[in-house]
């Protein structure tokens, strides 16, 4: 079992500040992931003291990519040295925005894998994601991602 407190999420995602939209992975297995992210004033997606819709969608995509991206690494690879991944959103099927969180809020994003197709070097997957601030739902979405190992 991986100790998620020892995982530096930036070792596993190609994103770097200021475009990294996940602070911590809370739960991660082959079918589900949950992440947290504190919204800071200097975030690229902050407009008028609120985290924008596009920021929420990007947070959802980064959260979702963790499920499939995990399979490209060995379980004991907590440094993220086992793969060099690139991923992108290939389709956004549905997005429902309920509210945008204010600066200083911490959002919790939970995603589940609904389908997956693998080849030797890439995966195409469909996922559902929901984002909350405390018990208030902010966003619900369904998207497809492509994850490719560049090694």
Describe it for me?
The protein has 151 residues and is mainly beta. It has one domain (4-149): Thiol Ester Dehydrase, Chain A. 12% of the residues lie in helices and 45% in strands. It contains 1 helix and 8 strands, in the order E-E-E-E-H-E-E-E-E. It has one helix at residues 53-70; strands at residues 24-28, 32-38, 46-47, 50-51, 85-97, 106-118, 122-133, 136-149. The chain has a 6-stranded antiparallel beta sheet with strand order 1-2-6-7-8-5, with helices on one face. A two-stranded antiparallel ribbon has the order 3-4. A hairpin with a 3-residue loop joins strand 1 (24-28) and strand 2. The longest helix is centred in the middle third of the chain and has 18 residues, at 53-70. The two termini are 25 Å apart.
């Amino acid at each position: 079992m991986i100790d998620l407190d020892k995982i530096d999420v930036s070792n596993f995602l190609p994103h770097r500040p200021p475009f990294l939209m996940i602070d911590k992975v809370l739960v991660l297995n082959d079918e589900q992931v949950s992440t947290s992210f504190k919204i800071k004033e200097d975030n690229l997606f902050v407009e008028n003291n609120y985290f924008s819709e596009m920021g929420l969608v990007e947070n959802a995509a980064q959260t979702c990519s963790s499920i499939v991206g995990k399979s490209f690494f060995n379980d004991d690879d907590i440094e993220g040295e086992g793969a060099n991944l690139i991923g992108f959103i290939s389709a956004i099927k549905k997005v429902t925005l309920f509210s945008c969180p204010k600066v200083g809020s911490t959002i919790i994003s939970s995603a589940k894998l609904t389908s997956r197709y693998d080849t030797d070097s890439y995966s195409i997957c469909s996922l559902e994601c929901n984002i909350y601030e405390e018990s208030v739902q902010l966003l619900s979405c369904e998207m497809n991602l492509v994850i490719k190992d560049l090694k």
